[in-house]
Amino acid sequence: MLVAVPLFDRFTSLDAVGAYEVLSFLPDVEVVFVAAERGPVRDVRGWLAMTAGATFDEVESCDLLLVPGGPGTRVLLEENPLLDWIRRMDATSEWTASVCTGSLLLGAAGLLTGLKATTHWASAELLESLGASYTTDRVVFQGKVVTAAGVSAGIDMALALVARLTDELTARAVQLGIEYDPQPPFDSGSPLTATSEIRARFRELAAQRARAS
Q1: In CATH, 2-182 is 3.40.50.2300
Q2: pTM
Q3: Residue 28 backbone phi and psi in degrees, to 5
Q4: Which residues form the DJ-1/PfpI domain (predicted)?
Q5: CB-side exposure of 197: number of CA atoms within 13 Å?
Q6: Which residues in the chain land under pLDDT 50?
């Protein structure tokens, strides 16, 4: 099974790595990180780089397409080689998935029109402008298209995919292997539980990070 993960400047590292860690437990799996050029691609802060081992031209198909998000998605919503490649992968993939604002790229590629989908809560309106119907669900399955909410939700999505690709016992075993037993210190991990003050503070932090990038 070939899992293809596109990388682009200013992606969010956990979007890619969280799901990758889960999916790497699948038997007979191969994961390839793909970009416009081979070599390092830097995340949103520029401190962490992941290595693309193949270019868009070199990967002609995959079984599972996994699209991460990040601030870098915003400049990729107009026609560009990444959107073309996403469409090509989706044409024959068994599964097409996104984490966080990776769903914006699926929407920009025309793959979410008329479908329910999720994304980072702060990008809900933008997602709907790209043809999807936003839902606050953490993981959304619509046929072969799977979208996950913000960042950490990619782990949940990947575990749900493992259950469908193998069985629930295997997915539970992988969950144990990564000791995924969330016990957050605060009940503010969702816009449904976070106060307006918390949401405003997040936006301040995000703006500060963007200026520092």
Answers
A1: no
A2: 0.96
A3: 60, 35
A4: 3-163
A5: 0
A6: none
Residue with tokens 């993939």: 93
List 66's β-bridge partners, or say none: 97
Domain-wise residue ranges, the chain? 2-182, 186-213
Task: Write a three-state SS string for the chain.
Answer: CEEEEECCCCECHHHHHHHHHHHCCCCCCEEEEEECCCEEEEECCCCCEEEECEECCCCCCCCEEEECCCHHHHHHCCCCHHHHHHHHHHHHCCEEEEECCHHHHHHHCCCCCCCEECCCHHHHHHHHHCCCEECCCCEEEECCEEEECCCCHHHHHHHHHHHHHCCHHHHHHHHHHCCCCCCCCCCCCCCCCCCHHHHHHHHHHHHHHHHHC
Contact (Cβ atoms closer than 8 angstroms) between residue 111 and residue 147: no
Given this model, what pLDDT does residue 22 score? 98
Q: Which amino acid is at 77?
A: L
Percent of the chain residues topping a pLDDT of 90: 97
Residue 122's pLDDT is: 96
Residue 7: closest CA among 70, 60, 64, 61: 70
Question: Which residues are the active-site residues?
Answer: 100
CA–CA gap between residue 7 and residue 50 (Å, rounded): 8
